[in-house]
Design goal:
The structure is a homotetramer. Chain A has about 375 residues and is α+β, with helices and mostly antiparallel strands. Chain A has 9 helices and 10 strands. In chain A, a hairpin with a 2-residue loop joins strand 2 and strand 3. At the A-C interface, helix 8 of A face helix 8 of C.
């Protein structure tokens, strides 16, 4: 029967997370503006700032909430994960502190499902412990995210796979210890049975990072976190196959279903933070002799933002609830797709309005001073 | 704990309503295009078509669901009422058949709360039985819906109130047996304590319907259902006061809180019907050698409509759930206001797209032939 | 060299038209709300009101300005016609008073180009004099405006064409003396060489008006001006062919090129009138203790409307200027298409805002009283 | 009389500019991504790349086109300046090469109007020759661009002005040789007569750049071109007053009127370049087995972009034409304001669509490799 509330026990956990994120993690954005530092496991920031916070999360039993208990996670359903991610989305460091940082979180999920014992030991365990960083390499420069256009292949030679091709937008490649690379191994199959997943250690010869692509308005030229990578005669042993030959799409879907819900709820958290900043600004800034909050156009921005955010949040939670209920992301794929297409518009709208209300302060003002 | 489903027992009722509306009421829109006929209690349409359907609803125990059991209603909460109204909103005759036709439904609510025994006997009982029609007269020609601009007054003379002024957009006035008129009786009070409610029988001398205002695109000139009324020395006995002197706003709020939820859920039903028509058209009409459903712009219209409707529906249901939980519409007034402002945009967007997809068939093609 | 002004001599003519329309024609909308009366050439309204006004226009030498001087018109270019139509668009009766009423104006254009001497005498002359009304029948119920989907045919039998099929949205059919009907006569040709134009007198046996389709929000059910017509074994003599066999598209294009500019400039006039009404309302209506003009959201509506209208007007005038310059609508077809798709959005946006600013007064309030 | 064309002689000049910008300047964006280098007059880039190009422009007689001939400019009207700036807007280095780089261009205008002979010699001459860079300091951190909220003051002490306060968003401050600072000198006057302009050499003691504020998505943190500056007991001689005491607004308006037209036309150029990139991408990228150009949603993006750009361009040119005609920016201030508010939306819409059509390639991919 219709219920729009969280049970008291879980709400208590969320309350702790909320207070912890606000007090301990949100300040890091200002203290350490170079947002890629923490990905470097050898950096002082990671060792001295991130690690101790991770220990607190583990001590609370909230580490890697998306994983099953057998892997040290909490075995939460999608609704609970959603509510947790809503809080983590408020600040860019929180997912790392809580062990739910993409793409590591999704990579851990598929390793948990498909990895052999040896693969688990070599790749999954250090990943779960947060000792290493991983990368998921599917998108290609000319094929985009459309598998029909992919051209990166792996050919079997003796007891090795030999990979040739290019991948694009490989998140965190520059800090990763291994890549999960989607390659054509069965070119004669139907399009969605052509690809396999291979685990490729980052130090395998033949891998070149052509460019570290950034996000407009976020990264320095050439210093972004989304690599353009070339694979030339890159050789990995046959046993580095993850899942079945030709089964790459089955593997990939494992990480995408729930992942979109988490992304969406982090987006809700991010948009809410933008809305809160808009509200703070509206009640503190005067112009033309009047506080911004008195101006109808500002009131409209606030009202529209609340409306878009609240409605979108309910759609995401309903979708999460359906996944929990049917245990079948395929059945809920229409809802998941709806969440995916609505998400960027909601964030763009609310963040743009927040920038507007801040005027020139909405420009990049973050600095160390 | 979060739940987005209806309990099985109530769902069964909704299923019956859904089938009944579809089979028995939806066809009436086409059969009897003059949509005001049923308001006339003496019309053949009302006696021969509406009455028998109303009897079926009563026999099922679904009559006037918004009223407390003591008044012959079902005592449903707002969530259940919302889900019921979602179905009734699909077609313009359904609310009348189910005894939830505005403004009679809201008028019955306030009579139930504030009427004296004599008033209940004279006005509420025949209204509940659907034997008469009523009118709520608040809006004014120059003051709109802003009470600060109202000027219609009632002055006490002996044992009578003497009303002078004008009201605007008085729905169903032309068929009503009595009006509930909001008048200034305590001009010296603060703005929101100035008005009282008076029950005015429609045949009281001094009432003139200046014009029956219509809705653009709906009614004939001069034949609309929203009257512009002039009150000149209209006299009613003192005992026709409804509620306290100066208490008109308290009375009015009684009908507006939940009313907005019902309106919103009927809007959801109406928009869903428009979306269904859009879908039917998209899969049946070819142009430029291709079915509409294959065209990206049509697909976008469908996707956007689904998204807007689904999100809005969840917002309305969450608001209904909050009213049920807190039993306090004041506490939930922010949510209710959000529903109110989101509603017309959702309907306008979806209905406009449905018209677009129908092309010139989206024009008024209904006829008797 | 860039110039955004009208030469003084023509401006003087426009000034007379503007004053005449305002003083003599705009009031007719309120005086004679039944907007189809003037189409009936036998009606008192036409004889006593429209005719005398037409005589004044003719006396001024402004009658049928779109026609070449040889046909009694003014031989204006598209820019001048545009500026004239901008004024005529302000009120629904003006085009009829100025002899530029669609579809008669376009029908006269194609008759002037393609009619034989006999056809000119029988159909064009009384049309130019405004003694009869005509109809252009191209659109079909299932094919819409996509010629690839048309099915209405004419088969030659002896010295007659025998027409069978249906047409939809045939404007003014109910008042027309003759129809120009587009029919398939060469089914074996390529799609755009399949059709011919036939002139069909309205009283030819076999023509049935299935329904007079209306525009939503404008006409009564069954009383609209856009007919759904059935042609069953309708026989016309061979000499009623207009233009070449298989040449219907060449004929049709003659009327569509410039016609879209006139429509667009009338739309500019209509939108400007809506904007003026918005402004009048904004400076005369108070709500919540403040004049509407002081509210930022109303100011935004005014500013957005001005911006959309001014920019669109310049686009239309530039397109008209290109047609005048190149004497080749084909070369300018991209611009003409741009005008066509921008037009409805501009009008819809501005008219909607005007309705909003009028509140419930934006409903249909026109009446005879 | 309406004319939408450029005269042949001036068009020839534009053609040369267009070819020169395309061949010589557009490539610089890719070759020298650090877009602030050229502001540094001592940099190799400025000396070796920019200077020689500037000489070519001067040799063609196209240097500093916005200035009167007496100052070495071309004395163009606003329409011609607009058409020139439309080309310069295509690439970020072009204004510098043509001597029309803001804020230097506007600063030169006001120095030309108000400077004493000594000021001209010391500040205007090297500025016109492009030997130094200048800064205009009006906006304040808390007052924004609303003069009513400004607090930076200058108090007279002996033969010096002593400045105290803060300025915000002072473009190019880090490279400037002098600042034109707007300060309160007559606090007892009416708001718009309170301020004076002072010329402040950049090396005057007491000036601190608190932070070099960047534009989100453009600059590095702390490395932007819009400085936050603190003035503490900054002393300049009395003769550094520019214009009259209390006359700062008169001075400021001199640079803002036409400046908005130039900005707008550069924006048109920038948006057109984005549209061209969108088109190139649409005809070269396949996804889901189809070229982007075949997809209706991409076609819609192209059509909407063309429409918005073409209409906006005409509005700007009409406004420029009105300024040229009336020689009175005050009379045309409504049009100028319309241009100002429409401009960012046009650019945002077209640039966003171009980014969308490029997918992840729309991210910042520029690099030296």
């Amino acid at each position: 029967m219709w219920d729009f509330s969280t049970d008291a026990e879980f709400q208590e956990k969320l309350d702790w997370v909320s207070a912890f994120v606000h007090a301990e993690i949100e300040p890091l954005d200002l203290l350490f503006p170079a947002h890629d530092a923490p990905y470097d496991r050898d950096s002082a920031v990671f060792r001295e700032v991130v690690r101790p916070l991770q220990e607190q999360v583990k001590a609370r039993g909230l580490w890697a909430a998306h994983l099953p208990p057998s892997l040290g996670g909490m075995g939460m359903g999608q609704v609970q994960l959603g509510l947790l991610n809503e809080i983590l989305g408020r600040c860019s460091w929180a997912p790392m502190v809580f062990g739910t940082q993409a793409p590591d979180s999704g990579n851990a999920e598929i390793l948990a499902h498909y990895a052999t014992d040896e693969q688990r030991k070599e790749f999954l365990e250090p990943l779960l412990e947060g000792r290493i960083v991983s990368c998921f390499a599917m998108t290609e420069p000319t094929g985009g995210a459309d598998p029909g256009g992919f051209t990166c292949t792996a050919v079997r030679e003796g007891d090795e796979w030999v990979i040739n091709g290019e991948k694009w937008f490989s998140s965190n490649a520059r800090w990763a210890s291994f890549f999960i690379v989607m390659v054509i191994t069965e070119p004669e199959n139907a399009p969605y049975q052509r690809h396999s997943m291979l685990i490729v250690p980052a130090d395998t010869p033949g891998i070149t990072i052509v460019r570290n692509v950034g996000i407009a308005g976020w990264d320095q030229p050439g210093e972004g976190g989304h690599a353009y990578i070339r694979y030339q005669d890159v050789r990995v042993p046959l046993e580095n196959l993850l899942g079945d030959r030709g089964g790459a799409f089955v593997v990939a879907q494992t990480r995408l279903g729930g992942g979109r819900i988490h992304h969406a709820m982090r987006t809700v958290g991010m948009a809410r933070r933008a809305l809160e900043m808009m509200l703070e600004r509206a009640v503190s800034r005067h112009t033309q002799g009047e506080i911004l909050a008195k101006k109808q156009l500002v009131q409209e921005m606030v009202a529209d933002s609340w409306l878009e955010l609240e409605q979108f949040r309910l759609l995401v939670l309903q979708t999460a609830w359906k996944i929990d209920k049917y245990h079948d992301t395929h059945r809920v794929r229409g809802d998941i797709a709806a969440v995916k297409i609505a998400m960027p518009t909601v964030l763009k709208n609310i963040a743009s309005r927040a920038l507007q209300v801040h005027g020139s302060l909405g420009s990049r003002t973050k600095c160390r001073s």
